[in-house]
Design brief:
The complex is a heterodimer of chains A (415) and B (225). Chain A has 415 residues and is an alpha+beta fold. Helix content of chain A is 57%, strand content 19%. Chain A has ten helices and eleven strands. In chain A, the strands form three sheets. A five-stranded mixed beta sheet of chain A has the order 6-8-9-11-10. A four-stranded antiparallel beta sheet of chain A has the order 1-4-3-2. In chain A, helix 4 packs antiparallel against helix 5, helix 5 (244-274) packs parallel to helix 10 and helix 6 crosses helix 8 (321-337). Chain B has 225 residues and is an alpha/beta fold. Chain B is 42% helix and 24% strand. Chain B contains eight helices and 14 strands. Chain B has helices at 10-20, 33-42, 59-68, 84-93, 105-120, 152-163, 171-179, 190-205; strands at 2-6, 26-30, 47-51, 53-54, 57-58, 74-79, 97-100, 126-129, 132-135, 140-143, 146-148, 168-170, 212-215, 219-222. Chain B is globular. The two termini of chain B are 20 Å apart. Classes of the chains: A alpha+beta (415), B alpha/beta (225). Chains A and B meet through helix 4, helix 5, helix 6, helix 7 and helix 8 of A and helix 1, helix 7 and helix 8 of B. Chain B: Residues 124-224 form the OmpR/PhoB-type domain.
């Protein structure tokens, strides 16, 4: 729920309740005051009857006015309890039934008891209360409308800095270089929020930057010792005769150093792509890149007895050639490595996309494999191949897609 | 053949020196910028193997120095940096080739030999080894005057062996040379074996000696008869 909605809801509820309570109190107070007023009139009339009777010793004539009626009735021995009652007033002119107020009392005229009933119409009182009530309702409605509009306008403008900060946070990405801009505000809370957000963003960015630089430097520094090991190995194998056991050990070391080199180069390359250090954009003929890569893989294709189908159109791209080679080599290597004996491999290239379709041994989770050092079961790679592909695609705005099931895998690069 | 190795990392410098010192070549070394500059100012080399990051200086300045003085010594840059900037600057300044660390010594030697050959033979670019005659421009191989047909990889491997004749070349070095480092052939050296088998068969059938020997299961050696 939006803050404005929530705020309005509470506001409206409270306003309506207060207004209703006020209205009810108002109604009863006014109605009470007015009834008292009528009662006073009624008592006045009663007193007039009493004074008339004590002076003249008979009942006064019954007269009619348009707001008051009086009636006498002979009583037996019992007395009547003096009381005020709400009753109905019969208006003689208009033949209407109106709300009325009556006073029942009694008088003794020459030993005979009479009851007195003085009735007065309450219609004017009711009218007054109605007007008061309508005015109250009107005020509530106007107040609510004004409140809603005002809230809307004020909140919209007051919360503007907040939404600006929020939209910047939503768009925040570690990978791009744009930093979070400061959003000035006259409200202390928002200024504080803004400071917190900008300083957090800057800190995160600089930490991330440091990490990337560290990765790059570390990979770099590792290259020298690795090349020393490599060269020492190359020198060692020149020296003497080796036993089978020794040469097996040397082979293992060679293999491990090669793996280490490859891993380190991949990490370095990843860091470089992420740091935006790879420029050198040139026109790359993807068809040539693919043909080269297929040529490089021909032994493996042949060994597995894979049926290779290619349909290569022409596609020129503006990119770094080395990166395109890595992308294509990784995808084709995977398609062969995860293939089975006498499987198939199709490589299709047109202006929109490159598709590599292969039969394969295992189903795997594409999103998982995209993560660093995540390998599908039985993979012999170092676990950075697809991460690199994804990074390269991201760098040039290509889309790397995967579709597949247990038996067939389709990797597509949409240019 | 006279080589100068400019490299500050002792381990690597010693290995390169040991690998390049032999019957047909002299290898000198320099460990820092000033001694390197002094050596290239005093002597001429067929090829200078140059590390870019040196104590007290940038290796690129040595390339600049050579070119400014009109020297045509071959220059091969070796560097852990493979940022394209360095590569382009180095090659723009007149370096002949660029090799990224880490590398195999056999790869280094094959690159150096290529540079030396390019400089030595002006015009006719032929490489002769006993009865084997290779036309480097046409990429054609003749044995005792008879043309022998090699595939691209076999041809490249033959040149690699001749450049490293008398040395044991490891299988990983061969794999890296043939397939580059972006293709992981995953410890599967069967492919190397079949290529070498083909080369030997073709050479022997054309009447050449069987030069290539397996070396203790680690690699192969092109023997100098």
């Amino acid at each position: 729920m939006k803050l404005l909605t929530k705020y309005n809801r509470i506001n409206v509820a409270v306003t309506v309740i207060i207004m209703l309570v006020t209205g009810i109190i108002y109604y009863y107070t006014i109605s009470h005051i007015l009834t008292n007023q009528i009662d006073k009139d009624l008592v006045l009339e009663e007193n007039e009857v009493f004074s008339y009777v004590s002076k003249n010793h008979h009942l006064p004539d019954v007269y009619e006015s348009n707001h008051q009626q009086i009636a006498f009735m002979k009583l037996g021995s019992g007395k009547v309890k003096r009381r005020f009652v709400d009753t109905v007033y019969h208006d003689l002119d208009e033949k209407d039934m109106e709300a009325g107020r009556a006073l029942i009392s009694s008088v003794n005229v020459s030993g005979q008891n009479y009851s007195i009933l003085v009735t007065q119409s309450k219609v004017e009182t009711e009218d007054l209360i109605q007007v008061v009530f309508l005015i109250t309702i009107g005020v509530i409605v106007i107040l609510l409308v004004v409140l809603l509009l005002l809230n809307r306008i004020i909140l919209k403008s007051i919360w503007k800095p907040f939404y600006k900060v929020l939209s910047q946070l939503k768009g925040f990405s570690l990978a791009d270089n744009a930093s979070v801009n400061s959003t000035p505000s006259t409200i202390d809370e928002f200024t504080e929020l803004d400071h917190a957000v900008t300083s957090m963003a800057d800190r995160v960015k600089s930490d991330y930057q440091n990490l990337k630089v560290f990765t790059e430097n570390a990979s770099h520094e590792l290259m020298t010792p690795i090349s020393v090991i490599n060269s020492k190995l190359d020198t060692l194998v020149q020296t003497d005769d080796f036993t089978d056991k020794q040469s097996k050990l040397l082979n293992d070391i060679y293999g491990t150093v090669t793996r280490l080199t490859r891993l380190n180069k991949s990490m370095l390359l990843l860091a470089k792509i992420e740091n935006g250090l790879i420029q050198d954009i040139q026109q790359v003929n993807m068809r040539e890149v693919l043909e080269d890569s297929i040529y490089q893989h021909e032994e493996m294709i042949l060994q597995l007895g894979i049926t290779l189908k290619t349909k290569l159109g022409n596609k020129l791209l503006n990119a770094n050639r080395a990166l395109m080679e890595i992308l294509v080599n990784n995808l084709i290597s995977n398609a062969i490595r995860h293939n089975y004996q006498a499987g198939s491999l199709s490589i299709l290239l047109d202006a929109e996309k490159l598709s590599i379709i292969n039969t394969g041994k295992h189903a795997f989770n594409f999103e998982q494999v995209l993560k660093r050092f995540q390998k599908s079961d039985g993979s012999e790679g170092i676990g950075l191949g697809l991460t690199l592909c994804k990074q390269i695609c991201d760098k040039y705005g290509f889309k790397l897609q995967y579709q597949g099931d247990k038996d067939s895998h389709v990797f597509s690069v949409l240019f | 053949m006279k080589i100068l190795v400019i490299e500050d990392e002792t381990g690597l410098r010693d290995s390169i020196e040991a690998y390049f010192t032999g019957s047909d070549s002299i290898c000198e070394v320099a460990a820092d910028f000033s001694s390197a500059l002094a050596k290239v100012s005093l002597y001429r080399y067929d090829c200078v193997i140059l590390d870019l990051t040196l104590p007290q200086g940038n290796g690129l300045d040595i390339v600049r120095h050579l070119k400014e003085n009109g020297r045509d010594d071959g220059v091969l840059i070796i560097s852990a940096k493979n940022s394209l900037d360095d590569r382009l600057t180095g090659l723009d300044l007149g370096a002949d080739d660029y090799l990224t660390k880490p590398f195999h010594l056999s790869e280094l030697r094959s690159r150096v030999m290529a540079i030396v050959r390019r400089r030595a033979f002006n015009g006719s670019n032929n490489l002769k080894f006993n009865e084997i005659d290779i036309d480097l421009d046409a990429k054609a191989v003749k044995v005792n005057g008879t043309a022998v047909k090699f595939t691209r990889k076999e041809y490249s491997l033959l040149l690699y062996f001749i450049a490293n004749k008398g040395k044991v070349v490891s299988k990983s070095a061969i794999a890296e040379h043939l397939w580059g480092d972006s293709i992981d052939i995953a410890d599967n050296f069967d492919f190397i074996y079949s290529h070498i088998k083909n080369i030997r068969k073709k050479l022997v059938e054309a009447g050449a000696k069987d030069y290539i020997q397996a070396a203790y299961g680690m690699g192969y050696k092109f023997i100098v008869a």
